[in-house]
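Hi V.,

You were right to ask for the full record rather than a summary. Here it is.
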Amino acid sequence: MHPANWYQTGRSLSFQRTKSITSGLFEAEWLFYVHIMKTHLLLLPGLLCDDALWFEQVQALSGHCDCTIADLTKDDSVASMATRAIAGMPDRFAVAGLSMGGYVAMEIMRQVPTRVERLALLDTAPGADTAERMDSRRELIKRVEQGEFAAVIEGHFLKFVHPDRLEDEVLMAKIRTSANHVGPEAYIRQQTAIINRPDSTSTLGKVSCPTLVLCGADDALTPPLLHEQMAAAIPGAELVKIKDSGHLPTLEKPEAVNAALGHWLGLS
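Predicted structure:
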């Protein structure tokens, strides 16, 4: 069968050309294709994060996965973010979301649960914001509208990483560059989406695909206890805590995260 006629679902097909060799009284060249199945992996960034959040994971996994990093800067609702993120994905795919990306991942599970073959929730929380937290976010939005974006993001950074990494100039420059790339207008849209996000607690028990729940062991924004509760609520979920990491383990401890994701994807 010609490869163009092969049905493609949630995995990509790549083909390799090989040749036959001389045999007996005749020589012929045959063309055939060996298809290599690759998982489609949708990666969802967090607040103020861009593609750099997942750079190390894409580098480590691209030989086994077709990685897509969603743009979560254009919408002001979690539902719209999820709809946009899955618009270009194939019928079946795996999803990994960190922080705000985790909120979007849980929304994807509400919108298209049968299309998700694996789910990873990193440094996130299933519940909606408290009234107090909503007020805090609205105050941050007001400050950004008044031109204080630079000061606001610096305040975020204090809780983004492990305290020992705050003096890591290379890491902090990477995070700062990403935040400035997202910019104030998208930040306001993202905070608006987070404020109005639904409570996903009841969704957890309905998840039936292989699930990884991962967090930095020293995450100050979404503490490990939340992840223990999420893992307990999702049937068969695996819980991984990354030592000496805060809220952004994909940047702080990429090798440990890569190993956990590789195991979740069935690569080890």
